[in-house]
Specification:
The chain is α/β, with parallel strands linked by helices. The protein has helices spanning 7-19, 30-39, 48-56, 95-102, 109-119, 135-146, 165-179, and strands spanning 24-28, 66-70, 88-93, 124-128, 150-151.
């Protein structure tokens, strides 16, 4: 997680992946941590990220699924291609991070781990949270897409009639899981007219 607004997307994506049985390595940037405290109830937990997730979502997955790495620790296993990881998601992703990854300029573990995914030809997903995009943003995103990165803008849908912020977060989390080939039931799939209750457009 980086420092863009949209901490709920991080929380719901972590929850969805852990519930699906996957082990996770979490890296949260300095400003990502500030955003997490500002936008969620993370500040109510005193034991850090592992305590937050395992307490908040107690019983939804086995303990021990989550490891945490400091965002400045480029000696972490995540900084080397020899430590194989199946995929990486940056959610939400700042335009600064997009720029760093697009141009191979690694200033922290998040940038470096993303660079590793690119050079090892492993799946990388970014969830940019910015509006509007300027030309530089678009060029950097295009550069990543040309390298095979999946770009999922933080733009939730509404056909599923979301009732809570968690529903909106789960839509983006579901899109991430779908791109990674992981089945989920986070929101109903679009079924054409069936999704509209058989209503004909006026």
């Amino acid at each position: 997680m980086t420092g863009a607004t949209g901490a709920i997307y991080f929380v719901r994506t972590v929850r969805a992946l852990a519930r699906a049985g996957h082990g996770l390595d979490l890296v949260v940037s300095r400003y990502g941590a500030l955003t997490l405290k500002e936008e969620t109830d993370y500040g109510d937990y005193q034991g850090g990220l592992i305590d937050y997730f395992e307490t908040k979502f107690s019983g939804e997955w086995e303990k021990g699924k989550i490891a945490v790495h400091h965002y400045q620790d480029q000696t972490s296993a995540l900084a080397s291609g020899s430590a194989v990881r199946d995929a990486m998601v940056i959610v939400p992703c700042t335009m600064k991070t997009i720029a760093g990854v697009a141009h191979g300029f690694s200033t922290n573990l998040i940038d470096r781990a993303a660079d590793v995914m690119l050079k090892e030809r492993r799946p990388l997903v970014v969830v940019p949270r910015e509006a509007p995009y300027n030309v530089i943003h678009l060029r950097n995103l295009l550069s990543l897409a040309e390298q095979g990165v999946s770009v999922i803008p933080a733009s939730p849908a509404f056909y599923q009639h979301p009732k809570t912020f968690d529903d909106l977060g789960d839509f983006i989390a579901g899109r991430v899981l779908s791109v990674l080939g992981i089945t989920h039931d986070l929101f109903p799939k679009w079924q054409g007219k069936e999704s509209l209750g058989q209503r004909e457009p006026e």
